[in-house]
Amino acid sequence: MYPVPLTRSGKTVMFFFCYVLFSIQFVKAQCIASGPNSPGAAVSDATGDYSFTNPSNCFSSDNSRATAQSLLFSGETDTLKATDFGFSIPTAATICGIEVNIEKSSSIFILNTAYVTDNSVRIIKNGKITGSDLEKTNVVWPTGDANTTYGYNGELWGTSWTPSDINSANFGIAISAKIVGDIGLFPAARIDYISMTVYYLAPSLLSAQSIQFTVANATSNSAQLSWNWNGDEAASFTVERSANGTKWEPVNGSLQKNNLTSAYTFNDVNPLTGRSFYRLKTLSASGEVRYSTVQPFELTAIPVLKCYPNPVTSLVTVYGVTAGEQITVTNLFGQQVYQSPPALNNTVSINFNELQPGIYVISAGNRKMKVQKK
């Protein structure tokens, strides 16, 4: 057989295939794994021939097993339903896939005579068994505990998902087994541990036009967010805050806009103690929701501005400056009359000789104080 040269259309098809494959893999690579989490509830329903005793033994890998013991030659177990996995997927995230790991075994294995296999492995959504059956009926359960994985990053189990579906206590996994026995050989299906991992795309990665913003200390007890917006004039902004980067809550505060520069500032006057996280949520006039990148923040004490002497006749020294800050001096009409170069340390000296007598405002960041020139 001789090689056949690719046609131009063939090249186009190959390029498109590679592009799609790369795009899918790139999205998967961005997905965040939450878990593995253990169940908080488990029951054996009455749908089979043999019920699981001690279903809660599937909560941890400790050799204490949920067990369905056969009494006849062959049959099916009840469905073991494990739920309440305690996920906290961000509200605006996109679910990428669900992975389930089940540590299981059979009390007896004799080839073609006495053994246990999967009967059904399906997802539980809103308290109901649904979606694709990912059972592996051609794989027998070993006599020693072994872990079997169902699903992966990209497997949605034949249904659509929202974060609230995953976070619900009624979300889980349902598994039943098929038992084959013989005279005097009655295998038991045993499950030691079930865990689940959920993969999701973080809200900050959902938009190719993520908003960039900064967050910094505004005063000794507040956080200030700053950003620019040149998009939809009808857009509304919500500042959200999180203690762990997963659970988010809206923040009440004052939002200010500079109409000349389209710059926005927002002050959170009650930031969380220690390290926290902020993000912006925008809602356009068309109803499109977008999220910014996530920015960490940790409240630090900012020194209070002081100056000496006050009143001043010529030279005044300003204390409590942070290195790199610039000091500005304005009159009572808001006109700037002086701006210092970036501070090299925590003090800045200003010469008031050329200023007229009166009251002036010295500012460093959002900190201000008044000084009198004689």
Automatic annotation (TrEMBL):
Lineage top rank: taxon: Bacteria
Pfam family, one: Por_Secre_tail
Positions of the Secretion system C-terminal sorting domain: 308-374
InterPro entries: Ig-like_fold, Secre_tail
Listed name of the protein: Secretion system C-terminal sorting domain-containing protein
